[in-house]
Specification:
By secondary structure, this protein is of the alpha+beta class. It is built from 14 helices and five strands. The N and C termini lie far apart (about 60 Å). The C terminus is likely disordered.
């Protein structure tokens, strides 16, 4: 039978974040033992019986209609990402129809490797759904992990994982001046993937490792944030070239592997574009990249 504990945790976390007034119910005078909505209040606002909603939250409802999930989503003010996550948790695919999990030792397709290597001045990398780095070009490595070997993604035993590095590697943490926002987004994205792939043992192992070794990860994971992010802006404080503000785009690689290419670019004429040019120039001087010393900061415009 599927494990519905994630569904229970998700629904409890969402009703705990709302008040009766926010969903159009009167606030009662008595003191509430716990913050947030009670099950009966969610059921009332959604037009469901308390028994029906309770069975769903406890993982005892095996068949849930679209209308019920829609009503719960409206009541709990779910975002589109959260609604998709609710569907994944409430209706997990039967084991027989699930795709096999991506193997830990997966490799990026050779054509994709050649593609990102052709981006000589653009940092780029290939990730799997667990955020393992399957490949990166020289600029991608120099931007995100100058302290690691260029060939690290080719060796499963020491393959970088961006989420692990964000929480457990102090040099990666120092790269993000807005680390708290970066960490929240990383956990929310991983939650979404975990809901879609409950059978992925390697993903579960990663979550377990981070939960044990990072209190900050464990605290965020327990709150069940859910969000996808395929494009946006990253602020970096790079140890070699200083402050950078880069746009990133994530492109899904066709096929069943759930791999994606991420590329980083800077606005034309900006100080960040000058910073990327300087970073590319540093590739021709291995000593500049190996000492870890910061180059003269690019003037800010």
């Amino acid at each position: 039978m599927p494990d519905f504990s994630e569904l229970s945790d998700f629904l409890r976390s969402r009703r705990a974040a709302l008040t009766p007034e926010e969903i159009g119910l009167p606030q009662l005078a008595e003191r509430r033992r716990v913050p947030g909505l009670r099950r009966e209040e969610v059921a009332l606002a959604a037009g469901l019986s308390v028994t029906h909603y309770t069975r769903l939250e406890q993982g005892r409802a095996r068949q849930v209609s679209d209308s019920v999930l829609d009503a719960i989503a409206r009541t709990l003010r779910l975002t589109p990402d959260e609604y998709g996550h609710l569907m994944d948790l409430a209706r997990p695919e039967p084991a027989a129809s699930r795709r096999p999990p991506a193997p830990r030792a997966a490799r990026a397709d050779q054509g994709i490797r050649q593609l990102i290597d052709s981006f000589s001045d653009t940092p780029a990398l290939v990730l799997d759904r667990r955020n393992d780095v399957l490949a990166w070009n020289a600029m991608g490595r120099l931007l995100l992990a100058p302290h690691l070997d260029l060939d690290a993604p080719d060796h499963p035993a020491r393959r970088p994982n961006l989420t692990r590095m964000l929480f457990l590697d102090e040099r990666t943490r120092a790269l993000y001046p807005r680390w708290q926002e970066e960490a929240q987004l990383a956990v929310a994205s991983l939650r979404l993937v975990a809901g879609r792939h409950p059978q992925d043992k390697q993903l579960a192992e990663l979550v377990g490792e981070l939960t044990v070794n990072s209190e900050e990860f464990a605290r965020r994971w327990a709150k069940h944030p859910v969000r996808t992010c395929v494009a946006g802006t990253k602020e970096l404080d790079h140890p070699l070239v200083g402050s950078l503000e880069l746009s990133f785009q994530s492109l899904l690689v066709p096929g069943p592997s759930d791999q994606r290419v991420i590329a980083y670019t800077a606005r034309a004429g900006s100080s960040s574009e000058a910073g990327l040019r300087l970073l590319a120039a540093l590739l021709t001087d291995p000593r500049s990249c190996s000492t870890g010393e910061r180059s003269p900061r690019v003037p800010q415009r």
